[in-house]
Amino acid sequence: MPRNRPTGLARRLAAVLLAVLGCLLAAPAMSAAQTPSVLLTRVDGTITPVVADHLEDGLRTAEREGHEAYVIEMDTPGGLLQSTREIVQEFLASDVPVVVYVTPPGARAASAGAYIAMSAHVAAMAPGTHIGAGTPVTGQGEKASDKVVNDAVAFAVSIAEQRGRSTEFARDMVREGTSVSDREALRIDVVDLVAPSREALLTEVDGRRVVVGPQGERHEVVLHTAGARVVEHNLGFFGEVRQLLASPELAFLFLSIGTLAVIYELASPGMGVGGVIGAVLLVLGFVALSVLPFHVGGLLLLILAAALFAAEVLTPGIGVFAAGGAVALVFAGILLFRGELGIDPAVLWPTAVVVGGGSVLAGRLAWRARKAPPTTGHEGLLGREAVVRRVDGERGQLLLDGAWWAARGRTGPLTEGQHVRVVDLDGLDLIVENAEAAHNGPPTAPEDGS
C-alpha cells in the first residue's frame, strides 16, 4: 500500500496541472470570443452599383457574423442617385447599427455621400472634412430638371426625418447646393459627433443607444464598440477592377475602339494583334456595361455604328458608311446610359471622329492590301531573282526566302553562279531564265550587209 501513495498523488498533481494548462490555453480564445468586433469598409471615389452591392454584402456579413456595428469610412465626390437610393434603403432597414465616418481630414461626403451619411444610425466626421452639395446633375454636369430636384429634396428630407437630423440642411443641400464643415454639421444636427481617429470614434459611440430594424420591427440596441476588434471587408481584386470599369467614358471607348480593331483585323488579316486587342477591349466594354445601367436602344445604335464601319472597311468608297457610322456612334453615346449617367462630350465627339476616320483609313489600307501583288504561292515567286548555287545535270538549286528550290532553265542548262529570274513553276521545280538577258531584252537582228 505505501508504494501506491506516490502514484496516486502524482496522478492528482498531473490532473491539476492539465486543468490549469487547459484554462491557460482556453483563456485567449474565450477572451477573443468576448471581445466585441466591428466590420469595416472603406469607400473612396464615386458611388456606383459596384459600391452599392459591396455595402449591401457588408450588411449581410455584419449581421451573419454578429458584429456590433458596420463602420463605413467614406471620402466621395458623389455618384449615381439610383445606387444611392439602394444603399439608403438598406441602411434604413438594417438590423446592424451602421456608422458612417467621413475621413481622413480633407475628405468629403458630397452629393450621394451626404445622403448616405445622413441615413446611417451614427454619422461622424473627422476634423477638416465637409458634407453637402447634394443637387442632382445630368450626365453632362448640368443641374437636373425641377422634377428630379424636387424628388431629391423629398428623398433627403425623409432621410433626415427618420434619423432625427436637420431637415432644413437636407432641403438646402439639394436646392441650393449647401455644403458645411464638420463643426458646422455638428452644430446644426447633421452629424452626431466629430472624432479625430477611428479609435476615438469607437470609444465615443460606445454605450450609445440606436434604433435598428425595418419599419414595424424596430428595436433599440446599445453599442459596445470601445476597444472593438476591427474586421476589414474589402472589395477585393475583381471588385476593384469592376469599380474601375464603372465609367461611362471607359465603356464607350472600349466598345468603340475594340469594334474598329476587330473589323480591321477581319478585313486585313495579319498577325492577329489587332484582333486580340480588339477582343480584349470589347470584353472590358461589356463588363462595364454589366455594371452600369444602359438602354437597349443605345446598344442597338452602337451595333448599327459597328456595321456601318465594317461596310466602310470591306467596301471602301467616299466615306459615306464611315460618316453614317460616326453619326450613329454619337447618338449611341447620348442614349446608351440611363438616369444621370452620361458620356462627357469631350470624350464622345473626339471618339466618334477618330473611329470614323480610322474606319476610312482602315478601308484604304485593306483595299491596297487586296490590290497589292501577291508575295506567297505560285504568283508570289514569279519575277523573283536568285543565284544558282549548285548544278546537277540539267537541274540546279537556288535559295529563295530561306528555302532551297530545284530549278530548270527555260532555254538551256544552268551553270553554277548564274543569276536567274523565275518565270514559271512546274510542280515543285522553278523554271528560270538568265536574269541579265531578261533585263537587256530580246537581241536585235543584225543589219543587212554587216
From TrEMBL:
Q: Which GO terms describe its molecular function?
A: peptidase activity
Alphabetical list of InterPro entries matching this protein = ClpP/crotonase-like_dom_sf (IPR029045), Membrane_assoc_protease (IPR052165), NA-bd_OB-fold (IPR012340), NfeD-like_C (IPR002810), NfeD1b_N (IPR056738), NfeD_membrane (IPR056739)
Domain NfeD-like C-terminal per the UniProt entry, residue ranges = 379-433
**Cellular location(s):** Membrane
The way it spans or sits in the membrane comes to: Multi-pass membrane protein
CDD domains recorded: Clp_protease_NfeD_1
Output the Gene3D superfamilies linked to this UniProt entry: 2-enoyl-CoA Hydratase, Chain A, domain 1, Nucleic acid-binding proteins
Q: Which GO terms describe its cellular component?
A: membrane
Residues annotated as domain NfeD integral membrane: 250-360
The transmembrane segments are 279-311, 317-337, 346-367
Residue ranges of every copy of the NfeD1b N-terminal domain listed in the record: 41-189
Q: What's in the keyword line of the UniProt record?
A: Hydrolase, Membrane, Protease, Signal, Transmembrane, Transmembrane helix
Q: Name one GO biological process term.
A: proteolysis
Q: Please state the span of the N-terminal signal peptide per the UniProt entry.
A: 1-32
Coiled-coil spans are none
- Which PANTHER family does the record match to this protein? INNER MEMBRANE PROTEIN YBBJ, NODULATION COMPETITIVENESS PROTEIN NFED
- Which protein, by its recorded name, is this? Serine protease
Q: Which organism is it from?
A: Streptomyces spinoverrucosus
